Amino acid sequence: MNIRSWPWAVLTPAVAFVLVGLFAPLLMTQDPAAQDYGAILQGPSATHFLGTDYLGRDIFSRIIGGARTSLTAMTVVLAAALAIGVVIGSFAGYVGGRTELVLISLIDIALALPSLIIALALIGVFSGEAWTWLSDFWKMVIALTLAWWANYARMSRAVVVAELQQPYIEAARVMGASHLWIFVRHILPHVLGLVVVYASADAGALVLAIATLSFLGLGVAPPTPEWGQILVDGMSYIEEYPSLVIIPGVALTAVVVSFNLLGEAFALQKVPRAVRGGLLRRKRAARAAEEAARGAAEAAEVRA
Amino acid sequence: MSDSTLSPAEARPVYAVESLVIDLYTPTLSVRAVDGASFHVAPGETLAVVGESGSGKTVMTLGPLGLLPEGVAVDLRGAARADGRDLLTMSAKDLSALRGGYFGVIFQDPISALNPMLKIGPQLARQAELYQGLSPEAARKEAVSLLARSGIPDPEDRFNRYPHELSGGMLQRAMIALALAARPRVLIADEPTTALDATVQAQILSLIRQIQKEDGIAVILITHDIGAVSVLADRVMVLYAGQVAEEGVAVDVLTDPIHPYTRGLLASVPDFRSETAVGTREIPGLPPNQASLEAGCRFVDRCERARPGCRTRRPELTAVRRGVAARRVACPVVLEEEGIAHG
Amino acid sequence: MQRMFLRRTGLALLLMIAASALTFVLITAAPGNVAALIAERSVGAGADGAMIRRIEEELGLNDPLPVRYLRWLGDAATGDFGVSLRSGKPMAEEFATRIPVTAMLLAGGGVLALVLSLAFGIAGAVSNGGVLDRLLHGLALLGASTPNFFVAALLVIAFSVGLGWLPSFGVSGISSWLMPWMTIALFPGSVLARVVRVNLQEAMSRPFATTGFAKGLTRRAVLVREALPNILIPFMTTFGAQFTLMMIGAIVVERVFGLNGIGAFFIEAIRFRDFIGMQAVLLLFVVFFVTVNLIVDIAAMLADPRLRRPKRA
């Protein structure tokens, strides 16, 4: 399969998710939180395109509002985790020595547990009295961010270590360039190149994590619409009204499939020509990172 | 064969290919890797197939056996016969059996050609069991003796070794033992010494020669090493860009090359024919991109003897009366200009 | 080799200690958490500052953090994980009844994922670009993208609501395990099937595969006898990673199907601010994840002859 034959149509759900999330206020026909006890568990109609739930809330509007909730949370978490990861990882790789060892240990500890378990534990921490000033939404966002940064940090560090071994860095140093200049001008582009591609592939996993937390009742709090929460609300009525579960489930799955396909496309370099130039650089960075990791492992073996 | 000068051995070839055309297709390009080549090899005979990398030597020899890398679509035309059967029309299963029992193949780089996760000895024993019909115990003994015969010291110990535990030279010996384990009629050695140290190369070549003398099997040696050709080959076939340029008895071709490409190839070998005193010369230019070929001679762009007609007229392989035995050359220009008797 | 084992084991122990210390600090660092909760649970909303301070004194909550951590770790080592604030039962008791449930869930799901991924991965490689290969690729992608709670819901709709074959809640014989197993096996099974397929393809393009053909093997035989052993190591490491990730599936599945396992308890503990329970479960998780990774690491080393029997220098 090459770029031209790649089924671009499969990206429709991801694109729709972003657009719907962005323009949700314009698209919602009703207030997604408004309850109407006169219209409980109704089928699709002209006023309720997808029917209503057990509180008479409009499912169509809730799905759209849910997209906005997910998109907001996902964007914030990705951006924050990426920023933290790049800063910590780059710093570790650039500074080296004892600081690097400490930071690597921290990264390794963070990676020893699955991200979602860490997020759950942090949500548990935030359930304490000291954290009541935080809304559930932000507790979830912060917990996910703190659970998600380590991967980016590890990657960033590997890229930095690899790039530092390039002769042109030495040349720049001899020419009197400052550390900050060398880092921002020469190294950071490589780091970002790799990490941003990884993040775009990671979006699906994050949408899934957000929905899972809400499904478990530990994510977004009830009045705010969220897909995992819409689905868990529907579970009680699954026998009579399976559509209450199927509608949010299908929406969620379609978006995740779409993002995962995008990730697979990046992995296989099936990307539009417009971004291919940038991607070649990223590919090189990825290879360099891989080699750096291998080199480090070998060095560790030798030392041991 | 109409040629009256053919040696008796050629009358009963064990592997013969006639007017073979092989097109290779990958998603991005298609290549005519072999263009109307014919060859044959008889028991006890060694045929050397010589040419630069990419000239189609391997594809021509191994292609009819279905031994081409995965991911490449192959279109084979012409005829290929072995064991009295047509290779190109037989079922995949029959062809597999023929590959295992009738042919033995030695590959270029034994380190990557031997499975790192499998012990060496059991693979040999399995071949002996399947294709020689031996009992498991007898097959094991046969495997050990094959290893010993291939010049591997302490074969009992090596039987249970993994490839990474042997040196490159030892691995190539093991590869030879594996190729021989089914008692094949044809041994194909695809650049068997290229990946080895110079000192080991000679040992491997003499091992192949010794095995052939003892077993009387047919050997096809694919190589670009003229030294190896002079050591082993009875006959030589020079391939250029998928076409046969020259073919004949090794002594003739090596001492008195006719085709301009063969001459260039031999002149580029240091100290091979010191009596000619031309010194080492490179053939200028690069082999043609086989994806974009025209009708005429494929060597035309690099040929010192090229004439305008060469570009459009395809050179036919013509029998030449010169040297000790039958020879065929695909260059009408040289034949004409030098007045070489042919036809 | 032996030194490598020891080194890996030592690192794993260090990792366990560091990770458990970090979770301990995070969860207990929030001031007044535990004592206030205990007071609240025992006398209701009327708990006053004096009572909280007395509880803190009794539990030694005013000692320095390292002391508290070591005491907690020492207690845990002797099987005392504290008393759950949620259920009022000792955590050791909760573990004794709940670990078997989760273990059963993970074991069944793991076996299912293992078998299905190998079968589908090999089937895809045999089909090699055919209809079956593309179908399996599509299914693997879908399986790796569908949220496991939605999978569970769809299974309930199909097998409980629709066909009425399987119970949708609780434990009653082997049939009640089928849907939970299928649910948690789908994601790792899909990922692993792709790993098998992709690595088999890579192995088939290596020179030793051509040697396999030259030995007279059919394509299927080359796949199974030559390529399959070569994907063992990536398969094992991915399986290890996916097996630990299955704990997330277990948490979801235990809630959906009403199984009283560790995962369901963990969520309850979080919702009811049972810090002692959370602490104990997280320690259990850390031990589980690090141990699984260690076992996989060592198994992968043993499976690779190049590591198992390094060339003598």
Q: What is the number of E strands of chain A?
A: 0
What proportion of the residues of chain B is helical, as a percent range?
25-40%
Instruction: Estimate percent helicity of chain A.
Output: over 70%
Calculate the mean pLDDT score of chain A and round it.
79
What global shape of chain A is seen?
Answer: elongated
Tell me the β content of chain B: 15-25%
Oligomer: heterotrimer
Mean pLDDT level of chain B: 85
Continuous helix count of chain A: 11
Question: How do the helices and strands line up, and which of them pair or pack?
Answer:
The complex is a heterotrimer of chains A (304), B (343) and C (313).
Chain A: H1 12-22, H2 24-27, H3 59-95, H4 97-112, H5 115-126, H6 136-164, H7 167-174, H8 179-215, H9 227-235, H10 243-267, H11 273-303
Helix pairs in contact in A: 1-3, 1-10, 3-4, 3-6, 3-8, 4-6, 5-6, 6-8, 6-11, 8-9, 8-10, 8-11, 9-10
Chain B: E1 15-25, E2 30-41, E3 46-50, H1 57-62, E4 73-82, E5 85-86, H2 92-101, E6 103-106, H3 110-113, H4 120-132, H5 136-149, H6 155-159, H7 168-180, E7 186-190, H8 198-215, E8 218-223, H9 226-232, E9 235-240, E10 243-249, H10 250-255, H11 260-267, E11 318-320, E12 327-329, H12 332-337
Parallel strand pairs in B: 3-8, 3-9, 6-7, 7-8
Antiparallel strand pairs in B: 1-2, 1-4, 4-5, 9-10, 10-12, 11-12
Helix pairs in contact in B: 4-5, 4-7, 5-7, 7-8
Chain C: H1 2-29, H2 33-43, H3 49-59, H4 65-77, H5 91-127, H6 131-143, H7 148-162, H8 175-204, H9 207-214, H10 219-256, H11 262-271, H12 275-303, H13 305-308
Helix pairs in contact in C: 1-12, 2-3, 5-6, 5-8, 5-10, 6-8, 7-8, 7-10, 8-10, 9-10, 10-11, 10-12, 11-12
What features would you describe in this structure?
The complex is a heterotrimer of chains A (304), B (343) and C (313). Chain A is built from eleven helices and no strands. Chain A has helices at 12-22, 24-27, 59-95, 97-112, 115-126, 136-164, 167-174, 179-215, 227-235, 243-267, 273-303. In chain A, helix 8 packs parallel to helix 9 (227-235). The longest helix of chain A has 37 residues, at 59-95. Chain B has 343 residues and is α/β, with parallel strands linked by helices. Chain B is 32% helix and 22% strand. Chain B is globular and about 65 Å long. Chain C has 313 residues and is mainly alpha-helical. Helix content of chain C is 79%, strand content 0%. Chain C has helices at 2-29, 33-43, 49-59, 65-77, 91-127, 131-143, 148-162, 175-204, 207-214, 219-256, 262-271, 275-303, 305-308. In chain C, helix 5 packs antiparallel against helix 6 and helix 9 (207-214) packs across helix 10. The longest helix of chain C is centred in the C-terminal third of the chain and has 38 residues, at 219-256. Chain C is flat, with a radius of gyration of 24 Å. Classes of the chains: A mainly alpha (304), B alpha/beta (343), C mainly alpha (313). Chains in contact: A-C, B-C. At the A-C interface, helix 4, helix 5, helix 8, helix 9 and helix 10 of A face helix 1, helix 7, helix 10, helix 11 and helix 12 of C.
